[in-house]
Specification:
By secondary structure, the chain is α/β, with parallel strands linked by helices. Helix content is 19%, strand content 26%. The chain contains nine helices and 38 strands.
């Protein structure tokens, strides 16, 4: 396809905070791929992206990427919160100047959501400024004046728990985008005899995957995809599951609906969860129906609850929206990028730990922890220079350098979340164990 593929953010990134403080929704893993990776696999070229200003150097193409309009080819605009890209097929069959609008209110705003558009560069220029400022609604209403409209309800991310909700089905959907020249049936792998496999025909593996007997692989409930990862003895993997290159499964029980991103270390038990990448949950402890961002480290025996004793639905506190009822009976925690949890920390269902926080020395953690929080029995602001120093060391252990642009993102998030903390170094927090929340003494 010759179209220029362009990801854009809209107002909906706000209800995905704090996960989207340090990345776009298009770079959240759901299924085997992120949306950016999914489009690359489908169309054969990496999409460009326009993002919030402070993310543009890492995740976008600069603040004013006017070069995207210079080619005399159609632009395929794709909302960064889109999960299943099947709806884009209809755009290719429709006349140029067609948009896809979802009417299910998943942007949190009235009037529908702009999902995608295939338009000329001239028409794109009319809404470019709105998209650069994440005004998806404004752009949609402008395009409605000129474009043919297709109304659909594709899967999109509105709230953090949607990542968990869609993950299992997207693993199965993404199987069709895997390169058959890279992945092989398990039966053809030279170490297949190390595995006790059920529904072996539904298991695809990378030639460089390592299996150390005995390993149990059960794909009866869904497919299993294993990249160039190492699966240590006594690991149990039940599909649907995706495990990426460089991951280490250390005698873990990986339950259905789980995606393990690249270069993660996983032990204990994990179920129906997404680990974005470069994160460690290497020791015993349970995580279920949860999302762990990049560069997260979870100490031994740290565990999340994913079910209330009352069997009621689980509420989650979202930035700027207060408590929102997820409507889910089972829901774990959401750990943003660069979160560190010490040993033996217990997290309630619906717990949210925002970017860069380092929590330790506490048995039950507060249900909501602001970005760049340090401590446990006493909480302080985590100094940004110290946090970045730790992040540099952690990334260096994986032979990755924290770039100046990545550090600038962390500095910006530290600044825009400062009012969330409101922590005086001499204050002692009071903790309500029943509510699972922390309050600060003025």
């Amino acid at each position: 396809m010759d179209d220029t593929i362009l990801l854009f953010e809209d107002e909906g990134y706000r209800t995905l905070l704090p996960i989207t403080y340090s990345r776009t929704a298009a770079d959240i893993r759901c299924g085997i791929f992120t949306l950016r990776e999914r489009l690359h696999a489908r169309y054969g070229s990496a999409p460009a992206a326009i993002t919030r200003r402070y993310l543009a150097d890492v995740f976008g193409v600069g603040r004013w990427p006017l070069q995207l309009l210079s080619r005399n080819v159609p632009l395929l605009l794709v909302n960064s919160r889109l999960v299943d890209i099947a709806c884009l097929v209809a755009l290719h069959d429709a006349p140029l100047g067609t948009i896809v609008v979802s009417d299910d209110g998943n942007s949190g705003a009235e009037g529908g959501t702009l999902v995608a558009a295939r338009i000329t560069p001239a028409l794109a220029s009319a809404v470019f400024g709105d998209l650069l400022d994440q005004h998806g609604q404004r752009a949609m209403h402008e395009l409605l004046r000129y474009c043919h409209v297709l109304t659909m309800r594709p899967r999109m991310l509105q709230f953090p728990w949607d990542i968990v909700e869609h993950n299992a089905s997207m693993i199965a959907t993404d199987m069709d985008l895997l390169d058959p020249a890279v992945y092989m049936p398990l039966a053809q792998h030279p170490q297949a005899t190390a595995c006790h496999a059920q529904a072996i025909e539904r298991i695809l593996v990378h030639p460089n995957a390592q299996f150390e007997a005995p390993v149990a692989l059960d794909a009866r409930e869904g497919p299993i995809v294993i990249g160039a990862a190492r699966i240590e003895p006594f690991s149990v993997i039940q599909g649907p599951v995706a495990i990426h290159d460089g991951a280490l499964i250390s005698g873990a029980r990986v339950r259905p609906g789980t995606t393990i991103g690249p270069v993660c270390r996983i032990g204990g038990e994990i179920e129906a969860s997404v680990v974005q990448g470069y994160s460690n949950k290497h020791h015993d402890g349970f995580f279920g129906y949860s999302y762990l961002g990049e560069w997260v480290n979870v100490g031994a025996m740290t565990t999340t609850s994913d079910l209330k004793n009352t069997y009621g639905t689980i509420k989650v506190t979202l930035d700027g929206d207060g408590q929102v009822d997820s409507g889910r009976l089972k829901l774990g925690c959401f750990l943003a990028d660069h979160v560190k949890l010490g040993i033996g920390v217990h997290l309630n269902g619906g717990a949210v730990v925002a970017t860069g926080s380092n929590i330790f020395g506490i048995h039950f953690a507060p249900k909501t922890i602001p970005a760049f929080t340090w401590g446990g029995e006493r909480f302080r602001e985590y100094r940004i220079d110290r946090m970045i120093d730790v992040a540099s060391k952690v990334m260096g252990r994986r032979k990755i350098t924290l770039s100046a642009s990545q550090a600038a993102i962390l500095h910006h998030v530290f600044t825009i979340t400062s009012t969330d903390r409101g922590i005086d170094p001499d204050d002692t927090p009071t903790f309500d164990a029943l509510a699972g929340e922390v309050s600060w003494r003025e």
